[in-house]
Backbone:
C-alpha cells in the first residue's frame, strides 16, 4: 500500500462512527458495532501501510502501556509490546503471578496505583471460566472511578488480550488475514468456515478462540460451522450470539459432531483443541473450593475423554475434501503437530508444513489489530489524527 | 493549571537556589535546604501542569533509568517507571534478588557496569536497619569515582526510593498532597499532624515512613505529634532532626504514648504500623550472624508484643475527636483495613472508605515528585530548561 | 572528540566497504572483512563522540530490540539495553529459561512470532559447546525465511552476545580499548598480547573469550601468545584461524604451557580461566544423553584438574616481567580476585586494584560496539546516515 492507498483508507475510516470507542474498553467483538469493527480493520491497515512506508506511527511522545498476564505468554506479550511501541508507549509488566486472588479493594487500589501515567492496560486472563472477563470489568470500573474522581489524569483503556469468553485480538487478526486473503471484507460473504475441535494430548485449552471465531465470523455473512465431538460444547451464550449475527448478516451458523461434515467444501478450516465448557465450569467451582484433588480427578477424566477422539485430526484426506482441496488452514499457534510436537495432534505435519507461511502471516496482523484498538480508544477523530501523522511524515528509521 | 499558571511557577522556581542539587543524589529530605525542598514541589507541579495540558515533559531523547529493588514492589516500581518515562528515560531493572550480599568490589564494579548510559539510579533498600542507606552511599560513591575517572560519561544520580532511615519520595508526595489540600505551603503552618503507630497483624514494617514524615513535616511550622505504644520508639537521630526542624520553622514536635491524645484536634492523621527500632537493630545483628533461629524467635516476640496493642486502630470514634471531626486521613498504602484485608488492622473500613479518593490522590503525586528529583539533579538551570520545554510545546499525544 | 573529529571519522568510514553487513548478522569476527571490522570501530567512535557532545544518536523513532539470554547476565544485558536505547529501540526480553530444548519448528515459529516489529535480536548462548552458534544460525535462518516470504516487514538482524565459539562484542570492545590505549590501530602492530589461562575455583567458564581474543587480535599484526596448562586446549579450528590471520597481518601466533613465558615482555596480558575444550565437548554429549551423574563426575574431575594449577595467577612478580613492568592488564570481568572474591584466584588484589580504572574503561566500549554492529546491519550507507544524524543535531538532553 502506498501513500495514496493510505489516504483512501483514511477517507473510508472518516465515514465510520467511532465516537463510542473513545475512552472505552475492548472486551468482546460482539459488544462493538459493525462500523467499529470495520474501523479497527481500517486503522490496522493504515498503521501497517505507514510502517511499511517508513512513516512513524507514533501517537504518543511518552506514556505507559501496562500489561497484565495471568500465565506465561510469549506471542501475546510480544504482540502487545509491538503495538505499544509502534504508538510510542513503553510497556510495563505487572506481574501478579498465576493466582487469581486479588479482589475488591486490592484490585481497585492496584488498578489506580499503576495507572497514573498509563494510557492503556492489556490483560490476558483466560484460565478460569467465569473469572477473566469479570476481573477485567472490575479493573475497568476501578480506573473509570479514578478518572471520574480526578485521580487519574487520563483514562487508561483496557484491551482484552484473551479472557474466558472471547479472544478479540486473535479473532480480529484472523479476520483481517481472511480479508487480505480473499481480497476484501465483502468477499467473505458466503464463504464456509469450519471452526472445529481437534485432538491434542494436553488438557484445558481455552474456549475463547472457537468462541471468538464464531462470534466474529458470523458477522460477515459467512457459513460458520462449529464442529466438535459430543461433550465438547462451548458456552451457549456465544452460540446464541453467532446465531443472531448470522441471521443479521445473511450468513448461516450450524453445528455438527462430524469433522468430515465441517470440512466438506469448506473455504477455511480452523481445527483446534479446546476443553468442554461444562467441565471448565466445574473446574472453576473446584478451584474456588480449593479442591485440588477434585481438579486432578477432573483432569484425568478429561484426558480420558480426549483420548477417545484421536481421530479428530486435520489430515491430508480431510483437506482434500475442502473446496477444491485448497481450503485456507488456520490456527492461532502453537499447534500440536502430529509426529512433530507430539505423537498424535491437531494437524498432520504435511498439512502444517504447506500452510506455514500463511499461518505466520495470519499472526502478523495481531500487533496492528492491538495498535488499532488502542488508537481508537485514545483518539476522538481517528481519521483526522492519522491524516496529521501521515502528513507529518516523520521517518521510523531516520 | 493553565500555561499562565505554569509560567508563574517557573518564575517562582527561578528564584530558588538549586545548584547543589545538580549532579547530586537525593537521600534524605533533611540533607536538602528549604529552597531545594521547595524547588522539588515547584518542578513537580510544573511537570504535572504541562502533562495535563498535553505538553511533552521529555528532558531526554534517550537514556536509561536503572531501578534496583531489594524486595517486591508494585507501587514504587510503577511510580519510578512513570517518572522516568515522563522525562524520556527507559527503565532497566537490575534484579539483585532479596539478598544483601553484595559488598565492596562487587558493588563498585556493578554500579559502574550498569551505568554507561544511565542518567539515574533509583534504589529501594529498606529491609535492614543500618544497611539500606549505607548501600546507597556506596553505590553513589562508586559512580562518582567512575565519573571522576572518565569512565562514565555522565554522572548517574541516585534517588532514594526508600531506605532504612527515610522515604523521601513518599514524604514529599505526602507533603505536596497537603499543600494542595490546604491551598498552599504557608497554610500548613500551625496545622496539627498526628503521625501515629497503628496495629497490623504483620511484623517488621519499615520505620522510614514515620521517620520521613516527622523529618519533613517539622519544616513547615506544623505541630507534629508522634504517637506509639511504649517500646515502639523510632531512631533517636531522626527525633532530634524533627526537634531541630520544628524549632527553626516555628512549629512543635511532641511525643505521646496515647493515640487518643495524638488524634485530639488533629488536622491530619497518619496511623500506620511500624516495627520498634531497637528490635530492628537487633534483627540486623542476628541477620549479620546468620542466626535465623534468633530471627524467628525475635519475630515471635514482636508479634506477641504487637498483639497487645490491637486497640491502636483508626476508628470512627477517634476520627470524631479530630478537628471538627474532619481531619485528613493519610496512608502510604496498602493499609491493613479491619474486616477487609485482615480481622483487625490499622483502620476501620468505614474510615478508609470515606477517604479512598484523597488517599489515591495522595499517591498520585509520587511519580511527579520522583520526576522532579531527577530533573533537578540533571539540569543546572531548571527554570530556564522548563521554559524551553514549555515553549517548544511538543504534544504528549500528537 | 569534537564535531570536526566526528566529521573526519565519518569521512574515514565512507571509504570502507560495508554493503555486506547490511541486513546481515554478526556471528564471528573472522567472518567479517578487515574493512568491516574497522567500520565497527569507526561507528562506535562516532556514536560515542556524538553522545559526548550531547547529540542524539537515535536511528529509530520506534522499534524493538529483542534479547534472548540462556543464563543470567547483568553486564551483557545492560550493554545491549544501552546500545538499543541509544539508537531508539526498546528492549524486550524473551525469557526462554536456561534449558536448551527448543528446536526446529519451535525455533522457527518463535523467531518469527517475536519479530514482527523487531529490528535486532541479541542472543547469548554460551553454555554448551556445539550448541550456541548452531542455535543462532537457526534463528537467523528462520527470520530470513520469514522476511523472504513477506511475513516480516523488516529483517531483524542478529548480534552474537556470546556463543560457544566467539564473543565478538567482548573482543571488539577489548580491541577498541587497545586502539584507544595505544593511540591508533596501526600502533597495535608488533605488540605482544598474552592470552593466558588463570586459575579460578569455579568450573566450566566459556572458551569464547580466549578464542575471541585470539581470533581478533591476530588480525592487527600483534604477537599473540596463547598460554595454558597442558589439557586446557581451545578449539583447534580457532587456533587455525589465529594462525592464518597472523600470517596475513604480519604478526605471530604462538602457544606455550608456561604463564611466565607468555608474560615475558608482554605489552598486554589477559589472564582468565576457561574450561578445556575436550571436556566441554564431552559435557555436551552427557547433557544430550541426560546423563547428569556423568556431568557431576566430570565436574569433580575438572575441579581436581583445576586445583593442580593454582599457581597460574597474575601476580605482581609476573607483572614485573612484562614490558617495562607496565603491561596493560585486561579482563572481561568479573575477575576472581585472590583474597577478595575467593581464597585463590586469577589475579592478585594489588594488581587488580591498580588496573581498576582501565578495566572499567575497557568495559565501557561494549555498548558502543554493539550499537555500531546494529547500525551497520540496518543502514546501507552508514556514513551518509551518520552525517544526516550529526547535522540534524538533535540534543540527547534537551
Residues:
Amino acid at each position: 500500500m502506498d501513500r495514496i492507498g493510505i489516504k483512501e483508507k483514511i477517507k473510508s475510516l472518516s465515514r465510520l462512527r467511532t465516537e463510542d470507542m473513545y475512552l472505552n474498553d475492548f472486551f468482546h467483538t460482539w459488544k462493538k458495532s459493525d462500523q467499529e469493527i470495520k474501523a479497527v480493520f481500517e486503522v490496522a491497515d493504515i498503521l501497517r501501510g505507514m510502517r511499511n512506508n517508513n512513516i512513524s506511527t507514533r501517537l504518543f511522545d511518552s506514556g505507559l502501556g501496562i500489561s497484565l498476564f495471568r500465565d506465561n505468554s510469549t506471542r501475546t506479550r510480544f504482540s502487545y509490546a509491538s503495538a505499544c511501541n509502534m504508538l510510542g508507549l513503553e510497556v510495563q509488566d505487572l506481574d501478579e503471578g498465576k493466582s487469581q486472588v486479588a479482589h475488591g479493594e486490592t484490585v481497585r487500589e492496584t488498578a489506580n496505583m499503576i495507572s497514573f501515567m498509563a494510557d492503556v492496560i492489556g490483560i490476558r486472563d483466560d484460565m478460569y471460566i467465569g473469572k477473566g472477563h469479570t476481573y477485567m470489568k472490575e479493573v475497568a470500573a476501578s480506573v473509570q472511578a479514578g478518572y471520574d474522581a480526578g485521580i487519574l489524569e487520563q483514562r487508561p483503556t483496557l484491551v482484552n488480550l484473551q479472557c474466558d469468553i472471547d479472544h478479540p485480538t486473535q479473532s480480529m487478526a484472523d479476520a483481517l488475514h481472511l480479508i487480505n486473503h480473499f481480497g476484501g471484507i465483502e468477499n467473505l460473504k458466503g464463504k464456509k468456515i469450519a471452526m472445529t475441535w481437534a485432538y491434542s494430548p494436553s488438557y484445558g485449552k481455552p474456549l475463547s478462540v472457537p468462541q471468538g471465531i464464531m462470534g466474529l465470523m458470523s458477522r460477515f455473512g459467512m457459513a460458520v460451522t462449529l464442529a466438535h465431538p459430543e461433550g465438547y460444547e462451548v458456552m451457549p451464550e456465544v452460540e446464541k450470539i453467532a446465531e443472531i449475527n448470522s441471521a443479521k448478516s445473511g450468513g448461516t451458523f450450524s453445528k455438527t459432531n462430524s469433522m468430515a461434515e465441517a470440512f466438506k467444501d469448506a473455504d477455511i478450516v480452523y481445527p483446534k483443541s479446546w476443553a468442554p465448557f461444562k467441565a471448565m465450569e466445574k473446574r472453576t467451582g473446584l478451584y474456588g473450593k480449593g479442591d485440588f484433588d477434585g481438579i486432578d480427578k477432573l483432569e484425568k477424566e478429561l484426558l480420558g475423554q480426549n483420548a477417545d477422539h484421536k481421530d479428530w485430526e486435520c489430515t491430508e484426506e480431510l483437506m482434500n475434501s475442502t473446496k477444491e482441496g485448497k481450503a485456507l488452514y488456520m490456527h492461532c499457534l502453537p499447534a500440536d503437530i502430529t509426529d512433530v510436537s507430539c505423537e498424535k495432534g491437531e494437524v498432520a505435519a504435511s498439512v502444517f508444513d504447506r500452510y506455514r507461511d500463511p499461518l505466520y502471516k495470519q499472526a502478523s496482523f495481531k500487533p496492528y489489530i492491538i495498535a488499532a484498538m488502542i488508537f481508537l480508544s485514545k483518539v476522538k477523530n481517528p481519521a483526522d489524527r492519522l491524516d496529521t501523522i501521515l502528513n507529518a511524515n516523520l521517518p521510523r528509521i531516520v
Remarks:
- Chain A touches chain B at residues 58-64, 90, 92, 94, 104-106, 108-110, 112-114, 116-117, 146, 149-153, 378-379, 385, 388-389, 392 (CB under 8 Å).
- Residues 34-52 of chain A form the longest helix (19 residues).
- The domain at 168-363 of chain A is CATH 3.40.50.1370 (Rossmann fold).
- Chain A has two domains: 3-165+367-392, 168-363.
